[in-house]
Amino acid sequence: MARCSGSLAIFLCVLLMLTSCQALGSNIDDGYGHEDGSFQSNSLIKLNNEDDVLTLKSSDRPTTESSTVSVSNFGAKGDGKTDDTQAFKKAWKKACSTNGVTTFLIPKGKTYLLKSTRFRGPCKSLRSFQILGTLSASTKRSDYSNDKNHWLILEDINNLSIDGGSAGIVDGNGKIWWQNSCKIDKSKPCTKAPTALTLYNLENLNVKNLRVRDAQQIQISIEKCNNVNVKNVKITAPGDSPNTDGIHIVATKNIQISNSDIGTGDDCISIEDGSQNVQIKDLTCGPGHGISIGSLGDDNAKAYVSGVNVDGATLSETDNGVRIKTYQGGSGTAKNIKFQNIRMENVKNPIIIDQNYCDKDKCEQQESAVQVNNVVYRNIKGTSATDVAIMFNCSEKYPCQGIVLENVNIKGGKASCENVNVKDKGSVSPKCP
Ligand SMILES: *[C@@H]1O[C@H](CO)[C@@H](O)[C@H](O)[C@H]1NC(C)=O
Ligand SMILES: *[C@@H]1O[C@H](CO)[C@@H](O)[C@H](O)[C@H]1NC(C)=O
């Protein structure tokens, strides 16, 4: 009997604690003035697990705590006109500091106007960044005064999944930037424009079902990340929009990009210094400048890229197909590269290695070069839009090594080959003279 009433006392006491705890909790959460967008689905679980007296029905007891922080609960209007940057920052602060599996939610059916914004970790337990609505970039230059090179940055967060739920759009509204680019208007000085979405220093990253369009400059830049999986991404911009690389990969290891469709004004995918183990599968590219490794070795830099495998791609009406480009004067290596199962439709330079790349007014003649080593082209078919289908313009001092063409058949052009020994396998056309 005594034991029983003891239990009852504990029971009541626990109940009391829980109520006051929740009350306290909601007070703390109201730090942003009644805009707390998170709903804790099971804040009682920990207490209950430590206490036998109260047991919840199993349906009330998920194995992990989880919550969603929606920008709409932090004052974001989503009317496409009001600047929602501050609301996003508040929501981010909340989502990033919440314990238990947390989702940052950008709701469907709305358009959120944003200035240059940084979503910075490390976070307690943020696992999902859901872009179900549209993120629309401010077109005012002054809205980028704190960071001229970036519009949206997600950085220093591990185990994050960025999901567009097939409806989500990141829209850079880049037109105003393109018009002012020196590549379009020669009278304008060459200045940088912001990258639409930068993913920086993220480990175990998933990006899926997302659309990105009309970036100010680069559309998605993946920098200093490890273990990245990009799937079902659609990236678009006009073919004449300057420097709008689709996916730019820098200093990133172990990345896979699959089932994606990129049509843009510059490289569909560009792979830069410090990238290793890059797997590209089932890619559609065009318009654009194709798939590029480089430019490497700019300003006499040392550059290393290795383990790139493009397996399954269709390139249509692009300026290049698969390209490796390095500047004179650089050093380092681009090695262990495989381009296979690729279809080219009316591509200007279907296969190209250019160790004399130059996109400036003038590049100095220099002997040093980034060594290109072990590049296999296998099962590549299609048509060339120019009379050079295959171009190996390699360095005299550092000739291209280990180049293999296997079952390559590109109609409409010849092969131009300098400082390279090509090994042909199966049927190859055109062949190096
Ligand atoms: C991320 O996931 C890995 C593997 O599941 C785990 O070991 C690690 O602790 C997680 N990191 C964070 C910050 O949660
Ligand atoms: C190789 O590149 C150099 C430098 O751009 C250029 O002058 C030369 O014409 C190129 N070779 C061929 C065969 O196109």
Give a verbal description of the structure.
With 433 residues, the protein is mostly beta strands. It has helices at 2-29, 45-49, 85-97, 175-179; strands at residues 66-70, 79-83, 101-106, 111-114, 117-120, 126-131, 134-137, 150-155, 158-163, 169-171, 195-200, 203-213, 220-223, 226-236, 247-250, 253-263, 269-271, 275-285, 291-296, 302-316, 320-327, 331-347, 349-357, 371-384, 388-393, 400-411, 414-418, 420-429. The protein starts with a helix and ends with a strand. One 2-acetamido-2-deoxy-beta-D-glucopyranose binds at residues 158-159, 204.
Q: Unreliable segments (pLDDT under 50, ≥5 consecutive)? A: 1-63
Distance between the termini: 101 Å
Report strand %: over 45%
**DSSP strand count:** 28
Bound molecules: 2-acetamido-2-deoxy-beta-D-glucopyranose
The coarse overall form would be elongated
**Total helical segments:** 4
Task: Please describe the biggest sheet, giving its number of strands, its sense, and whether it closes into a barrel.
Answer: 17 strands, parallel
Please bin the fraction of helical residues: 10-25%
Helix/strand-derived category reads mainly beta
Determine the mean pLDDT: 88
Instruction: Give Rg in angstroms.
Output: 26 Å
